[in-house]
Design goal:
single chain, 122 residues, 4 helices, flat
């Protein structure tokens, strides 16, 4: 977490961005429900959710707020699975999520270790 997130203004902005992203997700669900039966594919919800999660992190980055690696990983997974569903490809969802979480844990540990080493050298 960056030092900028500790400022009350940044925390408030972060909450607002999260609320806007959640609102977009609710709108997405409503729009998909309005489509005639058979028009919306299962993957469209996942695709939209993935775009929202990745978009949220892009906006957070531009605003100087730390990104959330977990939501980036989940966004990428949602897009991949959503595309697969949209184009009627079968993917094993649970193993993909488990593998992605494992990769995320490893990356997070390596990044934290690297940051610790840089602080010790300073």
């Amino acid at each position: 977490m960056s030092k900028q997130n500790d400022q009350p203004g940044m925390k408030a902005l972060s909450r607002k961005l999260n609320t806007v992203a959640f609102g977009l997700f609710v709108i997405l669900i409503g729009v998909l429900w309005l489509l005639p039966e058979g028009r919306a594919r299962e993957g469209q919800l996942l695709l939209g959710a993935g775009v929202i999660l990745l978009g949220l992190n892009v906006v957070r980055r531009f605003c100087g707020i730390g990104i959330n690696r977990l939501s980036i990983m989940l966004g990428v997974i949602a897009i991949v699975v959503g595309l697969a569903n949209t184009f009627t490809m079968e993917l094993p969802y649970v193993p993909i999520v488990v593998i992605a979480l494992g990769v995320l844990l490893i990356i997070k540990t390596l990044v934290a270790k690297e940051r610790g080493e840089k602080r010790e050298k300073s």
